[in-house]
Amino acid sequence: GQNIDQPTEMTATEGAIVQINCTYQTSGFNGLFWYQQHAGEAPTFLSYNVLDGLEEKGRFSSFLSRSKGYSYLLLKELQMKDSASYLCAPLDSNYQLIWGAGTKLIIKP
Amino acid sequence: GAVVSQHPSWVICKSGTSVKIECRSLDFQATTMFWYRQFPKQSLMLMATSNEGSKATYEQGVEKDKFLINHASLTLSTLTVTSAHPEDSSFYICSARDGDRVVNGYTFGSGTRLTVV
After folding, report:
1. What Cα–Cα distance (Å) separates residue B85 from each residue in A26, A27, A29, A105, B16?
2. With contact defined as beta carbons under 8 Å apart, do A20 and A86 qualify?
3. Which phi-psi region, left, alpha or beta, contains residue A28 (left: φ > 0; alpha: ψ -120 to 50)?
4. Sheet containing A3-5: order of strands
5. Are B64 and B56 in contact (CB under 8 A)?
6. How far apart, in whole angstroms, are the C-alpha atoms of residue B1 and residue B104?
7. Tens digit of pLDDT per residue, chain B (117 long)?
8. Is residue B67 within 8 Å of residue B48, measured between CB atoms?
9. For residue B12, what is the enclosing H or E element?
10. Within 13 Å, how many C-alpha atoms sit on residue A83's CB side?
């Protein structure tokens, strides 16, 4: 079956660094997305990885290891506005996004 | 970047009435549109996938006669919740892919919060 595993909730301090891990199992694989979702809002695109390695984009970086079925999102210099849910979503062989429940990130001053 | 406009943002309707939700791709042609539903503190649940000019493909457990999807053009898809009931109250979100440009991600509309009273 298809499965996404992320921590349910994480807490970090403003200005710090946090890493959100994701392991997945899918029928086929066509890359993996990370989305940010604030409460009551739609998800917004953060990153897309299809090759192994690290992709850096400003304060956010995303890593992928296809052989391990593993990805992480790294957030640096945390700001209060980063408090949100972070969704790891791989694309299966049909180019369908597979969604987990996401990780709720709480930033404390 | 790609933008998907979704309307209305929120709607309250009486039980038994129908509600139509529109999603428009503003600066690209959305050959495929996805419709999701999300209950509080739960993950996005795919309801159906629609391709322009053809019938939508519904996920298991989603009633196609209750959730009518029309994707008549490359820039517009609509979801109509027919004979709505309180249990249909949820956050409905559309998403579109800009052709084959997977690397740009799947763009989401802003969502519609439906409350059936």
Report:
1. 34, 35, 38, 33, 6
2. yes
3. left
4. A3-5, A18-25, A70-75, A60-65, A53-57
5. yes
6. 9
7. 788 999 999 999 999 999 999 999 998 888 889 999 999 888 899 999 998 888 899 999 999 999 999 988 889 999 999 999 999 999 999 999 876 666 667 889 999 999 999
8. yes
9. strand B10-13
10. 12
Buried residues in A52-66 as b, exposed as e (16+ CB within 10 A): eeeeeeeebbbbbee
B112 Cβ partners below 8 Å, 6+ apart?
B6, B7, B8, B9, B10, B11, B21, B91, B92, B93
Q: With contacts defined as CB-CB under 8 Å, which chain A residues touch B110? A: 41-42
Give A59→chain B minimum CA distance, Å. Answer: 19
- The tokens for A94 are 């049909």
Residue type, A69: G
Would the CB atoms of B91 and A33 count as touching at under 8 Å? no
Closest-CA distance, A14 to chain B, in angstroms, reads: 24
Nearest CA-CA partner of A37 in A107, A103, A97, A108 = A103
Residue B36 near residue B47, CB atoms below 8 Å: yes
